Amino acid sequence: MKALLGILVALSLVSVSPARPTSSALKTSDVALEALSPADSMTMLAAIPRTTGTWRGSIRIPGVHTQAVTLTITSQTSKGKIKGILIANADPSIRVSTNGTVKSNRSFTITLAGGHSGGAINGTGSGKLSANKKSITFNMVFVQGGRNFAGTLTLTTA
C-alpha cells in the first residue's frame, strides 16, 4: 500500500500532508465507540413515539363485561420502555401496574400485574399506536382467578 501511495505522490496524482490536530480536534479517547445492532440502527432512523400521559378507554371481555379504565403512563425510556398504572374508573381501588414497550413502527406491548380485594388481575397484550398517535388498541389475554379471558384494551389520549 505504501508503494502505491508513493507512486501516486510521485506522479502528482495525490498529495499527502500530515494532519495537524487543533485544540478542538477529537481524540479517540474522547468518544465512546460501540457497535450498533441492526435494531438500534433502525431506532436511530425512526423516532420512537412518546406515549407518556393519561389515556382513557375500556377493557372489553366479550360475554363478561366492559370496564371503563384510565391508564397513566408515568415514564418512557429512550428505548421505548414504559411504566404506568391502570385504574378502573368505577372502582379506583383496582390499580394495576403496567410495563411495556413501544417501538418506532408504533407497535406496542403491555403487561398488567395487580389486583384488588377480589383477587389478582394480570394480563398481556400487543397492539398498535394509531398513525395520529392518539389511540391504542391491544389484543389482550387477562388472567383472573386462574382463568384466562381474551379481550381488548382500547385507549385514547385524554
Structure description:
With 158 residues, this protein is mainly β. 11% of the residues lie in helices and 50% in strands. It contains two helices and eight strands. It has helices at 2-10, 38-45, and strands at residues 53-61, 65-76, 81-88, 95-102, 107-116, 119-129, 135-144, 147-157. An eight-stranded antiparallel beta barrel has the order 1-2-3-4-5-6-7-8. The chain is globular. Residues 13-19 and 21-34 have low confidence and may be disordered.
Give a short overview.
The protein has 158 residues and is mainly beta. It has helices spanning 2-10, 38-45; strands spanning 53-61, 65-76, 81-88, 95-102, 107-116, 119-129, 135-144, 147-157.
List keywords for this structure.
single chain, 158 residues, mainly beta, eight-stranded antiparallel barrel, 8 strands, globular
The helix/strand series, from N terminus to C terminus, equals HHEEEEEEEE
* Overall pLDDT confidence: 80
Can you give the helix content as a percent range? 10-25%
**What is the C-alpha radius of gyration, as a whole number of Å?**
26 Å
Shape: globular
- Percent strand equals over 45%
What is the β-strand count? 8
Largest sheet: 8 strands, antiparallel, barrel
The largest sheet has its strands arranged as 1-2-3-4-5-6-7-8
Which structural class is indicated by helix and strand composition? Answer: mainly beta
What are the low-pLDDT stretches, counting only 5+ consecutive residues below 50? Answer: 13-19, 21-34
Query: Ends: how far apart?
Result: 65 Å
Task: Please count the helical segments.
Answer: 2
